[in-house]
Amino acid sequence: MHVGTHFFAGWLVGVAPGLSPRERALVASAGVAPDLDGLGIIAEAATANSAHPLPWYSLYHHNLGHNLGFALVVTAFAFALARRRVLTAALVFAAFHLHLLCDLAGSRGTDGEQWPIPYLMPFSRAAQLTWSGQWTLGAWQNTVITAFLLAATVVAAWWWGRSPLGLFSPRADAVFVTTLRARVPPPDPGATA
User: Fold this and answer.
1) Residue 88, strand partner residues
2) What is the pTM of this model?
3) Taking 80 as the threshold, does the pLDDT of residue 187 lie above it?
4) Which residues contact 183 (CB under 8 A, 6 or more apart)?
5) How far apart, in whole angstroms, are the C-alpha atoms of residue 16 and residue 123?
6) What distance in Å separates the CA atoms of residue 187 and residue 14, rounded to the nearest whole number?
């Protein structure tokens, strides 16, 4: 799936009340952290026509970051930086694994090649996770999931009063939420049913 899809999924894992802005940022970041192993595409593209090409993307994407070992590193990092350590670490671990689940479902290449997820790396090469029903990265299913996550992010912003914009600009977040709530007022907490 696309990085944006993973970001919105990670954001939604950590948007509920109880986390600080930094802790929410850690959870949202964990949703995209496995794709750090895809940054090798820059070196691979830059050296493609050189005498010594660097196939870092081809060799390392879905290998270095898409595994239990990296999940534990990301979770430990979040645990060290959080105030609500156990909750944040648990949500980071969940967001990371949601990324793996999404890739397992919808990241097959257009040529039909699957990228297996070496889940137990670096501890073992035994588990190579694949799913025979995996759809391609550009499939309609990924578009529908992304649209759903985007809509859920807007609803969460309306409901809890915060959006991913708050990760970059609290002021922009406040303007977005205020505008959203002006268009669709939240229920009055004092109203009786």
Assistant:
1) none
2) 0.89
3) no
4) none
5) 34
6) 23
Coil vs helix vs strand at 117: strand
- State both tokens at 137: 């990265």
**Distance set, CA 114 to CA 4, 61, 62, 132 (Å):** 21, 12, 11, 9
Determine the Cα–Cα distance for residues 182 and 45; give it in Å rounded to an integer.
47
For tokens 């919808």, the residue is 106
CA dist., res. 179 & res. 129, Å (int): 44
Please check whether residue 149 is in contact with residue 156, taking contact to mean a CB–CB distance below 8 angstroms: no
Tell me the per-residue pLDDT of 28-71, one tens digit each, with 9 for 90 and over.
999 999 999 888 888 889 998 888 888 888 787 778 899 999 99
Tell me the C-alpha distance between 144 and 106, whole Å: 12
pLDDT of residue 116: 86
pLDDT at residue 54 in the model = 86
Q: Is 108 helix (H, G, I), strand (E, B) or coil?
A: strand
